[in-house]
Design goal:
It is elongated and about 90 Å long. The chain folds into three domains: about 35 residues, no CATH class; about 80 residues, DNA polymerase, domain 1; about 190 residues, Intergrase catalytic core (hpI Integrase, Chain A). Helix content is about 50%, strand content about 5%. By secondary structure, the protein is mainly alpha-helical. A hairpin with a 4-residue loop joins strand 1 and strand 2. It has a three-stranded antiparallel sheet, with no helix packed on it. Belongs to the 'phage' integrase family.
């Protein structure tokens, strides 16, 4: 017997639950009436045979999509596709046990996924959604324990440049023949800004008179890889930072070059709102472009290559060596948590603290 419940708003497919083997016509009619009432109450399929994949899709589209930025939504969908659904997708939610969920958490941990805690939280959120929608009555993932890695290290401190290394890298970037890449890395090196923040900049963000740069947006990838400009990572990421005179001079020269280049190519340059680092069609550049620049510079000049994000660690450590106080560095970096800045800052000043101890010992004439 089939019951026609219309179309699923997610998939557009017709909702036609069915069942066989009724002992009587009355029993079949009662089952049909029950399905109708159940659907009108919840707006969803019955929980009977409901898979985690289906419940997950409904949570993503009905609830999660409206709570986060597009880029965050896209990343979360990828996490489910790559790391969660392969283990849980086909499982019926009513039959999932705490023991099975714990085994999945342990596998994520054993396979070395740094975000295993986040995976677990996402699954808990899906089950909680199912409970609120009255599709299920329990959340087995919420009862699992979190494995702890005693040897976990959040920051790899060898992933930054010392002052001579950074100076050499910038010199090589300039000699590499790509003026845009040199300007990009000069800006990262002297401001500590994030890659996405730099790629989203336009010249209207620069106050040449006051020597200030406004960081108020970031470039991210949304659904299906679509490039989107959105608000920065955190509230503290929105900030105004000062620029040194040389960086400001280079930016002024770069603005003249970009404007002239795209005028010649026939691309309209919007006054003030011209991207600082556009692609060849004067549009948003792919986030992978700076990585290609970085690799090209380091390969051509046989340099030790660090990740793009490590230029922030470099900026932080060199600020510490320059004697700039911790709160000021944190504000320049736009860190929401001072502990993030502190961890790098203290490591960078470790040798200075040792020198201070030795200097005090020498002063006291302690052998």
């Amino acid at each position: 017997m089939y019951v026609d419940l219309g179309h699923d708003p997610l998939t557009g497919k017709r909702l036609r639950p069915h069942r066989r083997g009724f002992k009587s016509q009355k029993e079949a009619e009662m089952w049909s009436a029950h399905k109708q009432v159940e659907f009108e109450k919840s707006g969803f399929w019955s929980s009977e045979g409901l898979t985690f994949k289906t419940l997950c899709q409904r949570w993503l589209d009905f609830e999660y999509r409206n709570q986060v930025k597009e880029s965050t939504y896209a990343k979360t969908v990828d996490i489910f596709r790559l790391h969660i659904l392969p283990y849980l997708g086909r499982q019926q939610v009513e039959k999932l046990s705490v023991n099975f969920c714990q085994s999945v958490v342990n596998k994520w941990f054993d396979e070395g996924f740094k975000q295993y805690r986040r995976f677990r939280t996402y699954v808990i959120n899906v089950f909680d959604f199912g409970i609120r929608m009255e599709l299920i009555v329990r959340n087995p993932m919420s009862k699992t324990s979190i494995p702890k890695n005693k040897n976990a290290v959040e920051i790899h401190f060898d992933e930054y440049y010392e002052k001579p290394e950074l100076t050499k890298f910038l010199a090589c970037a300039k000699a590499n023949g790509n003026q845009e890449s040199f300007m990009f890395f000069r800006l990262l090196a002297y401001t500590g800004m994030r890659k996405g923040e730099a790629l989203a900049l336009d010249f209207a963000d620069i106050n040449f008179e006051n020597r200030e740069l406004s960081i108020n947006k970031t470039l991210s990838q949304g659904v299906n890889g679509r490039l989107v400009i959105q608000t920065p990572k955190t509230k503290t990421s929105v900030r105004v930072i000062s620029l040194d005179e040389e960086t400001l001079r280079l930016l002024s020269e770069w603005q003249e070059y970009v404007t002239m280049k795209f005028d010649v190519l026939g691309y309209k340059c919007t006054t003030g709102h011209q991207l600082i680092f556009p692609n060849e069609k004067n549009s948003l550049a792919q986030p992978s472009v700076p990585d290609h620049w970085n690799r090209s510079i380091c390969d051509n000049f046989k340099l030790h290559r660090i990740k793009i994000h490590a230029f922030r660690h470099t900026f932080c450590s060199l600020c510490a060596e320059a004697g700039i106080d911790l709160p000021s560095v944190s504000k320049m970096l736009g860190h929401a948590d001072l502990r993030i800045t502190t961890e790098v800052y203290l490591h960078a000043t470790r040798h200075k603290r040792k020198q201070a101890v030795d200097a005090f010992a020498n002063f006291m004439d302690i052998s």
